[in-house]
Amino acid sequence: MMKQILFSGVIGLFLTLVGTPLLIKLLARKGYGQYIRDDGPREHASKRGTPTMGGIAFILATIAAYFLSKLITGYPPTYSGLLVLGLMFGMGLVGFLDDYIKIVKRRSLGLRAKAKMAGQLIVGIGFAVLSLMFADARGNTPASTKLSFITDFGWSIGPVLFVVWALFMILAMSNGVNLTDGLDGLATGASVLVFGAYTFIGVWQFQESCANATTLTNPGACYEVRDPLDLAVVASALMGACLGFLWWNTSPAKIFMGDTGSLALGGVLTGLAILSRTELLVAIMGGLFVLITMSVVIQVGSFRLTGKRVFRMAPLQHHFELKGWSEVLVVVRFWIIQGICVIVGLGLFYAGWAADK
After folding, report:
1. Could you tell me which residue, 1 or 296, shows the higher pLDDT?
2. What span, in angstroms and rounded, lies between the C-alpha atoms of 277 and 111?
3. Is residue 346 part of a domain?
4. Which residues have C-beta within 8 Å of that of residue 38, sequence separation ≥ 6?
5. Which among 4, 23, 115, 215 counts the fewest CB atoms within 10 Å?
6. Does any domain span residue 74?
7. Which residues contact 92 (CB under 8 A, 6 or more apart)?
8. How far is the C-alpha of 77 from the C-alpha of 98, rounded, in Å?
9. Is the pTM of this model over 0.90?
10. Is residue 7 part of a domain?
11. Is 209 exposed, middle or buried (0-12, 13-18, 19+ CB in 10 A)?
């Protein structure tokens, strides 16, 4: 069963390594280049015209890697895996429409705010509602109406509040990844680290699943997650696909992921967190995305309240660029911050399991 994880990761990596340059040529031929803000760091002017919408590459590669790994190993897809992939595809489609209007139709703001929000709400509500269906033999649905940190805790918040909570998480994380995607390879590399962590979490939850309670040394420390191994398969496919894309997206980037990629990554990361019962833990695991989002909130809030800016420019990565840090220096140091967040998150995840033992 573990072979699925290896196959999905390797296939995802191969498909983006080979497929991304083909997408670059196609986008360049059609002239679908990136728009660069005039008020940003001057060094970014050279990026104007770089092909964007590169998220298409790793979205399709992830989906292909998942199904090919199933075909090779003979294991069927699960509802959890399909729901997470559906969320990624749906959010990516909203981002694609935004990019398409922005780049092809030459309308700088892309999708109108209400239309973009409507698209995200439709996708998010669809995921949240469907994730409370499809109970297995043990009565576990892909998602739970309880809040979770490393496992479910507290009282059920009910299906309506769960949908609202899921929407908040999806929108927050999608915008977080979108804001992070401002430097070559920054969001892609950070995502690789988080998806690697969720591959480990899925494997661990599978090995310590309550479904195997009779063979566990401590059944009290087991996990009630419907399809943990399949979530690991999806996370591995994402890790491989993003790693292959990073080869072309790192400085100097030959292609950008665009909103197509950033909304998809934020959506699928939230989906993995909700279905693996680690909803609050993802705020630590994806700490870089949270940090960068908070820098924008602080900047806007400070300017509206006091008329003064806390940072030279928001999001945070551009503040350090304007302080004189090179783009590569900012990216590598931010990757280190993300790596620390992942280590802390995994440490808390393991500590929670060990404490229950």
Report:
1. 296
2. 33
3. no
4. none
5. 215
6. yes
7. 55, 56, 59, 260, 261, 263, 264, 267
8. 30
9. yes
10. yes
11. buried
Phi, psi angles (nearest 5°) of residue 73: -90, -15
Amino acid at 203: V
List phi, psi (to 5°) of 240.
-65, -45
299 conformational bin, left if phi > 0, alpha if psi -120 to 50, beta if neither: alpha
Q: What is the pLDDT of residues 126-156, one digit of tens each?
A: 999 999 999 888 889 999 999 999 999 888 8
Domain assignment present for 304: no
Query: What are the φ/ψ torsions at residue 146 (nearest 5 degrees)?
Result: -90, 150
Find the largest Cα–Cα distance for the chain: 63
- Which residue matches tokens 């469907």? 130
The one-letter amino acid code at 169 reads M
What's the structural domain count of the chain? 1
* pLDDT tens column, 228-282: 999 999 999 999 999 999 999 998 889 999 999 999 999 999 999 999 999 999 9
Q: What residues make up the domain containing 197?
A: 3-282
